[in-house]
Amino acid sequence: MAKRLLDLLGAGLGLLLLAPLLALVALAIRLDSPGPVFYRQVRVGRGGREFRIHKFRTMTHNPGDRGPQITVGGDARITRVGAWLRRSKLDELAQLFDVLLGDMSLVGPRPEVPRYVALYPAALREKILSVRPGITDFASIEFRDENDLLAGSADPDRAYREEVLPRKLALQARYVDAAGVATDLTLIARTLAALLKR
User: Fold this and answer.
1) Considering the entire predicted model, what is its pTM?
2) In CA terms, which of 6, 26, 65, 140 is 20 to 30 Å from 17?
3) In terms of DSSP bridges, do strands 105-107 and 134-136 run parallel, antiparallel, or are they unpaired?
């Protein structure tokens, strides 16, 4: 109950205070390239239930039709405004709507696409999907430069599956073990500090 109240207050206040910035981001996206302001993708949430996550669009419209699902730095599908949004992480702010809808939490394991969730070891899958996915967590902070990291690999998808994903899952399991309002507030503060540092 306390966590959901924190989510509602945090997401509501965030959307209210950031409304001018979000409007400018939406305008920049529309002026930069044709297509919708938001990009929606199927992710796996609590209990294995699928939902459609919101992000500000950073790539050309329907990018999945013209390339791999995983995105790395330097991907030709990323728009000019999109590159800036990705660097600043402002594209993730649209997920505040998902928090209000109850599909996500401010803090929790980042939701994955079904194809990667299928690779989770059974015990970790049950544990990680026992809580609402979040906008940030230990893994999000640790891998905030994930796209650039994968860009240096000859096979980004394989590098993600074999190197990055296992480390993310360990950090996500750590969050589930430590979940609570105090942990959430600490991770929110660390996330904001990392964003401001950029």
Assistant:
1) 0.89
2) 140
3) parallel
